[in-house]
Specification:
InterPro entries: P2CMN_synthase_LarB, PurE_dom. With about 260 residues, the chain is of the alpha/beta class. The protein is built from 12 helices and 11 strands. The relative contact order is 0.12.
Length: about 260
């Protein structure tokens, strides 16, 4: 149950359409459900504005299916699953679930159910230094879309060919938030941070040769950015960057009014 649904429940009670016992029963069906292998947080949307996201790594396809089934039964219309490979997705699809599966093969992530219409204040731009950063970038894109954001891809605009970035300034400057993903030395976030008037969320990726240390070099470079307004998430964490960008694009979450 999210905040909007809770308000509707209280309005229904106020109108005399349901009893006090019915309201109490709805509220008692929370805050979590113990499934044995996991405890499904049923009040996450009420507390934070977004329902719990299923992290697929380390879970079997059947465990993901069970979690999604319970979330769907709780009337969660959009269920985001990250780090889920094709094999697990195929297992769930073969079970004939009641929801549609929108699977992004490159991101190894999926939305079960509806991808909502954008309702944020503006656009989120997802920019990458190169095409090799697309895995984390697509995870960010799918997460942004699942959370109701208009999302624009701006790929392969790294500093090795700065003209590619500068020719897209209109896209960057019209954004409400920018997610900048880069490996190697991770310079893209600093350059974008010096050009735009909105928050920039930097995602170091594990792309690069030996001395990049699987993204550590980009992480340290981004943390030492001299551009103002740049924040940094963990290596390859497209999901975390998108979650933060969505909060920026939906300030009602910060105020608790959904």
């Amino acid at each position: 149950m999210n905040q909007k649904e809770l308000k509707q429940l209280l309005e229904t009670y106020k109108a005399g359409e349901i009893s006090e016992d019915d309201v109490l029963l709805k509220l008692k069906e929370a805050p979590y459900e113990d499934l044995g292998f996991a405890k499904l947080d049923r009040h996450r949307a009420l507390r934070q504005g977004q329902a719990e996201v299923i992290y697929g790594a380390g879970k079997t396809g059947e465990q993901i299916r069970l979690l999604a089934e319970r979330a769907w039964q709780d009337r969660q219309k959009t269920i985001l699953v990250t780090r889920m490979n094709q094999e697990k997705k195929d297992l769930i699809a073969a079970s004939n679930p009641p929801y549609e599966i929108h699977y992004n093969e490159l991101a190894e992530a999926a939305v079960f159910g509806e991808i909502p219409e954008p309702d944020g204040l503006g656009k989120i731009v997802v920019a990458t230094g190169g095409t090799s950063d697309q895995k984390a970038a697509e995870e960010a894109v799918l997460t942004c879309e699942a959370f109701g954001n208009e999302t624009v891809r701006l790929y392969d605009v790294g500093v090795a060919g700065l003209h590619r970035l500068l020719s897209n300034l209109d896209i960057l400057m019209s954004a409400n938030a920018v997610i900048a993903l880069a490996g190697m030395e991770g310079a893209l976030a600093s350059v974008i941070g010096g050009l735009v008037d909105c928050p920039v969320i930097a995602v170091p990726t594990s792309v690069g040769y030996g001395a990049s240390f699987h993204g550590l070099s980009a992480l340290l470079s981004m943390l030492n950015s001299c551009a103002s307004g740049v924040s940094v998430v963990n290596i390859d964490n497209g999901f975390g960057a998108a979650y933060q960008a969505s909060m920026i694009n939906h300030p009602k979450y910060l105020g608790g009014n959904q």
